[in-house]
Design goal:
Elements: H1 9-21, E1 43-47, H2 54-70, E2 74-78, H3 85-94, E3 101-106, H4 107-116, E4 126-133, E5 135-142, H5 150-157, E6 162-166, H6 172-184, E7 188-192, H7 196-204, E8 210-214, H8 215-219, E9 225-230, H9 247-251, E10 259-260, E11 262-267, H10 268-273, H11 275-287, H12 292-300, E12 308-311, H13 313-329, H14 331-334
Parallel strand pairs: 1-2, 1-3, 6-7, 6-8
Antiparallel strand pairs: 3-11, 4-11, 4-12, 5-8, 5-9, 5-10
Length: 338
Protein backbone atom coordinates (compact mmCIF):
# COMPACT_ATOMS: atom_id res chain seq x y z
CA UNK A 1 0.00 0.00 0.00
CA UNK A 2 1.37 3.38 -1.01
CA UNK A 3 1.07 6.22 1.44
CA UNK A 4 0.11 9.57 -0.06
CA UNK A 5 1.53 12.69 1.58
CA UNK A 6 -0.39 15.95 1.29
CA UNK A 7 1.72 19.10 1.32
CA UNK A 8 0.06 22.26 2.57
CA UNK A 9 0.93 25.76 1.36
CA UNK A 10 2.51 26.41 4.76
CA UNK A 11 4.75 23.37 4.36
CA UNK A 12 5.67 24.52 0.87
CA UNK A 13 6.70 27.93 2.12
CA UNK A 14 8.80 26.27 4.82
CA UNK A 15 10.60 24.21 2.18
CA UNK A 16 11.22 27.28 0.03
CA UNK A 17 12.53 29.22 3.01
CA UNK A 18 14.97 26.44 3.82
CA UNK A 19 16.14 26.37 0.21
CA UNK A 20 16.64 30.14 0.24
CA UNK A 21 18.67 29.95 3.43
CA UNK A 22 20.84 27.33 1.74
CA UNK A 23 21.54 29.80 -1.04
CA UNK A 24 19.26 28.73 -3.87
CA UNK A 25 15.51 28.67 -4.24
CA UNK A 26 15.99 27.17 -7.71
CA UNK A 27 16.51 23.81 -6.00
CA UNK A 28 12.89 23.63 -4.85
CA UNK A 29 11.53 20.10 -5.48
CA UNK A 30 8.31 21.22 -7.15
CA UNK A 31 6.34 24.28 -8.19
CA UNK A 32 2.69 25.08 -7.78
CA UNK A 33 0.31 25.40 -10.68
CA UNK A 34 0.41 29.18 -10.47
CA UNK A 35 3.99 29.14 -11.78
CA UNK A 36 2.64 27.98 -15.13
CA UNK A 37 0.72 31.24 -15.52
CA UNK A 38 3.46 33.52 -14.20
CA UNK A 39 3.97 36.17 -15.34
CA UNK A 40 0.53 37.08 -16.56
CA UNK A 41 1.35 40.79 -16.85
CA UNK A 42 4.33 43.09 -17.23
CA UNK A 43 7.02 43.24 -14.57
CA UNK A 44 7.88 46.59 -13.02
CA UNK A 45 11.52 47.42 -12.39
CA UNK A 46 12.48 50.20 -9.99
CA UNK A 47 15.79 51.85 -10.90
CA UNK A 48 17.25 54.04 -8.12
CA UNK A 49 19.29 56.19 -10.54
CA UNK A 50 18.50 58.52 -13.39
CA UNK A 51 17.45 57.39 -16.84
CA UNK A 52 20.27 57.13 -19.38
CA UNK A 53 22.98 56.10 -16.91
CA UNK A 54 24.98 52.91 -16.59
CA UNK A 55 22.27 51.05 -14.70
CA UNK A 56 19.72 51.98 -17.37
CA UNK A 57 21.94 50.69 -20.19
CA UNK A 58 22.64 47.45 -18.34
CA UNK A 59 18.97 46.96 -17.53
CA UNK A 60 17.76 47.48 -21.09
CA UNK A 61 20.40 45.20 -22.59
CA UNK A 62 19.48 42.44 -20.16
CA UNK A 63 15.71 42.81 -19.97
CA UNK A 64 15.30 42.96 -23.75
CA UNK A 65 16.58 39.38 -23.84
CA UNK A 66 15.11 38.19 -20.53
CA UNK A 67 11.61 39.05 -21.71
CA UNK A 68 11.87 36.29 -24.33
CA UNK A 69 12.12 33.66 -21.62
CA UNK A 70 9.31 35.13 -19.52
CA UNK A 71 7.07 36.09 -22.43
CA UNK A 72 6.37 39.48 -20.93
CA UNK A 73 7.73 43.01 -20.92
CA UNK A 74 9.64 44.96 -18.30
CA UNK A 75 8.53 48.45 -17.37
CA UNK A 76 11.35 50.49 -15.80
CA UNK A 77 10.71 53.42 -13.50
CA UNK A 78 13.55 55.75 -12.53
CA UNK A 79 13.76 57.19 -9.03
CA UNK A 80 17.08 59.02 -8.56
CA UNK A 81 17.95 60.86 -5.40
CA UNK A 82 20.04 60.59 -2.24
CA UNK A 83 22.56 58.23 -3.84
CA UNK A 84 19.93 55.63 -4.62
CA UNK A 85 18.15 55.82 -1.27
CA UNK A 86 14.95 57.28 -2.72
CA UNK A 87 14.42 54.40 -5.11
CA UNK A 88 14.98 51.71 -2.49
CA UNK A 89 12.81 53.40 0.11
CA UNK A 90 10.00 53.71 -2.43
CA UNK A 91 10.37 50.10 -3.59
CA UNK A 92 10.47 48.60 -0.12
CA UNK A 93 7.74 50.88 1.20
CA UNK A 94 5.26 51.01 -1.69
CA UNK A 95 5.83 48.20 -4.22
CA UNK A 96 3.74 45.08 -3.74
CA UNK A 97 5.71 41.97 -2.79
CA UNK A 98 4.30 39.67 -5.47
CA UNK A 99 7.28 38.99 -7.80
CA UNK A 100 5.88 41.47 -10.32
CA UNK A 101 8.01 44.22 -8.80
CA UNK A 102 11.81 44.12 -8.88
CA UNK A 103 14.54 46.64 -8.24
CA UNK A 104 17.71 46.90 -10.35
CA UNK A 105 20.60 48.63 -8.69
CA UNK A 106 24.33 48.81 -8.18
CA UNK A 107 25.03 46.65 -5.15
CA UNK A 108 28.33 48.29 -4.19
CA UNK A 109 27.32 51.93 -3.73
CA UNK A 110 23.85 51.07 -2.50
CA UNK A 111 24.96 48.60 0.16
CA UNK A 112 27.54 51.15 1.31
CA UNK A 113 24.73 53.66 1.55
CA UNK A 114 23.11 51.53 4.25
CA UNK A 115 26.40 51.37 6.15
CA UNK A 116 26.65 55.16 6.19
CA UNK A 117 23.01 55.64 7.15
CA UNK A 118 20.53 52.87 7.92
CA UNK A 119 17.37 52.82 5.78
CA UNK A 120 13.82 52.77 7.09
CA UNK A 121 13.51 49.09 6.12
CA UNK A 122 15.48 46.03 7.19
CA UNK A 123 18.33 45.54 4.71
CA UNK A 124 17.86 41.76 4.85
CA UNK A 125 14.28 42.16 3.61
CA UNK A 126 15.62 43.12 0.18
CA UNK A 127 17.28 40.09 -1.46
CA UNK A 128 19.69 40.39 -4.38
CA UNK A 129 19.15 37.30 -6.51
CA UNK A 130 20.55 38.11 -9.96
CA UNK A 131 23.91 39.75 -10.55
CA UNK A 132 24.55 40.91 -14.09
CA UNK A 133 28.15 42.13 -14.01
CA UNK A 134 31.23 42.94 -11.94
CA UNK A 135 32.83 46.25 -12.92
CA UNK A 136 35.99 47.14 -10.96
CA UNK A 137 36.78 50.66 -9.86
CA UNK A 138 39.80 52.55 -11.11
CA UNK A 139 41.88 55.73 -10.76
CA UNK A 140 42.02 57.93 -13.85
CA UNK A 141 43.03 61.39 -15.05
CA UNK A 142 42.24 63.54 -18.05
CA UNK A 143 44.40 63.14 -21.15
CA UNK A 144 46.14 66.46 -20.42
CA UNK A 145 46.87 65.74 -16.76
CA UNK A 146 50.48 66.08 -15.60
CA UNK A 147 50.09 62.75 -13.78
CA UNK A 148 51.35 59.90 -15.95
CA UNK A 149 51.69 57.15 -13.35
CA UNK A 150 49.97 56.23 -10.08
CA UNK A 151 53.26 56.64 -8.20
CA UNK A 152 53.26 60.33 -9.16
CA UNK A 153 49.83 60.75 -7.59
CA UNK A 154 50.98 59.04 -4.40
CA UNK A 155 54.09 61.20 -4.15
CA UNK A 156 52.11 64.39 -4.73
CA UNK A 157 49.54 63.24 -2.21
CA UNK A 158 52.25 63.06 0.42
CA UNK A 159 53.00 66.76 -0.17
CA UNK A 160 49.44 68.09 -0.29
CA UNK A 161 45.88 66.82 -0.04
CA UNK A 162 44.61 66.00 -3.53
CA UNK A 163 41.01 66.56 -4.59
CA UNK A 164 39.47 63.35 -5.92
CA UNK A 165 36.27 63.29 -7.93
CA UNK A 166 33.87 60.41 -7.27
CA UNK A 167 30.32 59.75 -8.37
CA UNK A 168 29.25 59.46 -4.71
CA UNK A 169 31.10 59.20 -1.43
CA UNK A 170 29.83 55.73 -0.56
CA UNK A 171 31.26 53.89 -3.57
CA UNK A 172 33.65 50.93 -3.99
CA UNK A 173 36.05 53.13 -5.97
CA UNK A 174 36.00 55.67 -3.13
CA UNK A 175 37.02 52.92 -0.71
CA UNK A 176 39.81 51.96 -3.09
CA UNK A 177 41.44 55.37 -3.01
CA UNK A 178 40.97 55.66 0.76
CA UNK A 179 42.68 52.31 1.18
CA UNK A 180 45.54 53.49 -1.04
CA UNK A 181 45.93 56.60 1.10
CA UNK A 182 45.93 54.51 4.27
CA UNK A 183 48.59 52.21 2.82
CA UNK A 184 50.91 54.87 1.39
CA UNK A 185 50.35 57.93 3.60
CA UNK A 186 49.07 60.01 0.69
CA UNK A 187 46.22 62.42 1.47
CA UNK A 188 43.05 62.40 -0.59
CA UNK A 189 39.92 64.56 -0.32
CA UNK A 190 36.88 62.86 -1.84
CA UNK A 191 34.43 65.17 -3.62
CA UNK A 192 31.09 63.67 -4.76
CA UNK A 193 30.19 64.92 -8.24
CA UNK A 194 26.81 63.19 -8.65
CA UNK A 195 27.12 60.57 -11.34
CA UNK A 196 29.66 59.09 -13.70
CA UNK A 197 29.35 61.80 -16.37
CA UNK A 198 30.26 64.57 -13.95
CA UNK A 199 33.04 62.49 -12.40
CA UNK A 200 34.67 61.98 -15.79
CA UNK A 201 34.28 65.69 -16.56
CA UNK A 202 35.96 66.59 -13.27
CA UNK A 203 39.08 64.73 -14.34
CA UNK A 204 39.04 65.80 -18.00
CA UNK A 205 38.66 69.52 -17.22
CA UNK A 206 41.26 69.41 -14.45
CA UNK A 207 38.76 70.61 -11.87
CA UNK A 208 39.80 67.54 -9.88
CA UNK A 209 43.38 66.36 -9.45
CA UNK A 210 42.06 62.98 -10.55
CA UNK A 211 38.92 60.87 -10.26
CA UNK A 212 37.80 57.37 -9.29
CA UNK A 213 34.94 55.53 -10.90
CA UNK A 214 33.83 52.20 -12.32
CA UNK A 215 36.32 51.24 -15.01
CA UNK A 216 33.71 50.33 -17.61
CA UNK A 217 32.56 53.95 -17.75
CA UNK A 218 36.16 55.14 -17.95
CA UNK A 219 37.06 52.72 -20.75
CA UNK A 220 34.14 54.04 -22.79
CA UNK A 221 35.71 57.52 -22.82
CA UNK A 222 38.69 56.33 -24.82
CA UNK A 223 41.56 58.76 -25.34
CA UNK A 224 39.88 61.54 -23.33
CA UNK A 225 41.10 59.88 -20.13
CA UNK A 226 44.06 57.83 -18.89
CA UNK A 227 43.69 55.04 -16.35
CA UNK A 228 46.43 54.76 -13.73
CA UNK A 229 45.24 52.05 -11.32
CA UNK A 230 42.60 49.30 -11.21
CA UNK A 231 40.96 48.05 -8.00
CA UNK A 232 40.83 44.41 -9.07
CA UNK A 233 43.05 41.34 -9.09
CA UNK A 234 43.58 41.73 -12.82
CA UNK A 235 43.17 44.44 -15.43
CA UNK A 236 41.07 42.32 -17.76
CA UNK A 237 40.48 45.16 -20.25
CA UNK A 238 44.21 45.65 -20.76
CA UNK A 239 44.89 48.40 -23.30
CA UNK A 240 41.37 49.80 -22.98
CA UNK A 241 42.44 50.78 -19.47
CA UNK A 242 45.95 51.77 -20.57
CA UNK A 243 47.40 48.54 -19.15
CA UNK A 244 47.15 50.16 -15.72
CA UNK A 245 48.49 48.12 -12.78
CA UNK A 246 46.30 46.66 -10.04
CA UNK A 247 46.43 48.00 -6.49
CA UNK A 248 47.42 44.66 -4.93
CA UNK A 249 49.97 43.86 -7.60
CA UNK A 250 51.64 47.27 -7.57
CA UNK A 251 51.44 48.25 -3.92
CA UNK A 252 51.40 44.86 -2.20
CA UNK A 253 48.02 45.44 -0.55
CA UNK A 254 45.56 42.65 0.18
CA UNK A 255 42.20 44.14 -0.78
CA UNK A 256 39.29 42.21 -2.24
CA UNK A 257 38.18 43.37 -5.71
CA UNK A 258 36.35 46.67 -5.34
CA UNK A 259 33.53 46.18 -7.78
CA UNK A 260 30.35 47.81 -8.84
CA UNK A 261 27.93 44.95 -9.43
CA UNK A 262 24.57 45.61 -11.04
CA UNK A 263 21.91 43.20 -9.85
CA UNK A 264 18.20 42.55 -9.53
CA UNK A 265 16.69 42.37 -6.07
CA UNK A 266 13.28 41.42 -4.73
CA UNK A 267 11.31 41.56 -1.50
CA UNK A 268 12.11 38.62 0.76
CA UNK A 269 8.38 38.50 1.46
CA UNK A 270 7.72 37.84 -2.24
CA UNK A 271 10.11 34.88 -2.21
CA UNK A 272 8.44 33.42 0.85
CA UNK A 273 4.88 33.99 -0.36
CA UNK A 274 5.42 33.04 -4.01
CA UNK A 275 8.37 30.62 -4.18
CA UNK A 276 7.04 29.12 -7.42
CA UNK A 277 7.03 32.50 -9.15
CA UNK A 278 10.48 33.25 -7.81
CA UNK A 279 11.79 30.00 -9.22
CA UNK A 280 10.52 31.05 -12.65
CA UNK A 281 12.42 34.33 -12.31
CA UNK A 282 15.62 32.57 -11.28
CA UNK A 283 15.52 29.90 -13.96
CA UNK A 284 14.77 32.33 -16.78
CA UNK A 285 17.36 34.83 -15.51
CA UNK A 286 20.18 32.31 -15.90
CA UNK A 287 19.25 31.57 -19.51
CA UNK A 288 20.02 35.11 -20.65
CA UNK A 289 23.79 34.79 -20.21
CA UNK A 290 24.13 32.04 -22.83
CA UNK A 291 21.95 33.84 -25.36
CA UNK A 292 24.03 35.41 -28.18
CA UNK A 293 21.51 38.22 -28.41
CA UNK A 294 22.57 39.36 -24.97
CA UNK A 295 26.24 39.66 -25.92
CA UNK A 296 25.24 41.58 -29.03
CA UNK A 297 23.12 43.94 -26.91
CA UNK A 298 25.98 44.57 -24.46
CA UNK A 299 28.43 45.32 -27.26
CA UNK A 300 25.92 47.57 -29.01
CA UNK A 301 25.47 49.53 -25.78
CA UNK A 302 29.29 49.92 -25.64
CA UNK A 303 29.51 47.70 -22.59
CA UNK A 304 32.35 45.36 -21.74
CA UNK A 305 31.44 41.73 -22.22
CA UNK A 306 34.46 40.76 -20.10
CA UNK A 307 32.63 42.18 -17.08
CA UNK A 308 29.38 40.27 -17.69
CA UNK A 309 28.95 37.26 -15.41
CA UNK A 310 26.12 35.52 -13.63
CA UNK A 311 25.72 35.67 -9.88
CA UNK A 312 22.91 34.17 -7.83
CA UNK A 313 21.85 34.61 -4.22
CA UNK A 314 24.99 33.07 -2.73
CA UNK A 315 27.35 35.17 -4.86
CA UNK A 316 25.41 38.33 -4.05
CA UNK A 317 25.47 37.53 -0.33
CA UNK A 318 29.25 36.99 -0.38
CA UNK A 319 29.75 40.29 -2.21
CA UNK A 320 27.48 42.12 0.23
CA UNK A 321 29.41 40.76 3.20
CA UNK A 322 32.78 41.93 1.85
CA UNK A 323 31.70 45.39 0.72
CA UNK A 324 29.80 46.12 3.93
CA UNK A 325 32.80 45.09 6.03
CA UNK A 326 34.98 47.55 4.09
CA UNK A 327 32.28 50.17 4.45
CA UNK A 328 32.33 49.81 8.22
CA UNK A 329 36.11 50.10 8.21
CA UNK A 330 36.10 53.37 6.25
CA UNK A 331 32.75 54.65 7.44
CA UNK A 332 34.04 57.88 9.03
CA UNK A 333 35.60 58.88 5.68
CA UNK A 334 32.48 58.09 3.67
CA UNK A 335 30.18 60.46 5.52
CA UNK A 336 31.89 63.66 4.41
CA UNK A 337 32.21 64.77 8.03
CA UNK A 338 35.76 63.78 8.84
Amino acid sequence: MTKTTRTSRRDFIKVSGAALAAGGVSSLPFASASAQSFPSRNINVYVPTREGGGADRNLRAFSNVWKKYLNTNFEPGFYPGASGRVGYELYMGKAKADCYNLIFGNMGPELLNWVVKKPTFEVSDCVYFGRVDTDPGCVFVGANSPFKHIDEIVEEGKKRKLNVGTSRLAHPASIGILALGEHTGAQFNLIPLSGGKNTVAGAVTGEMDFSVLTSGTVAARGDAVRTLLVFNDENVLGERLDNAPTINGHFGTNLPPLLSARAFAIHRAAIEEYPDRFQVLQDSFKKVFADPEYKAAVVKAKGNWEYINYGGISECEAYAKDIQALGERFRPLLTGRS
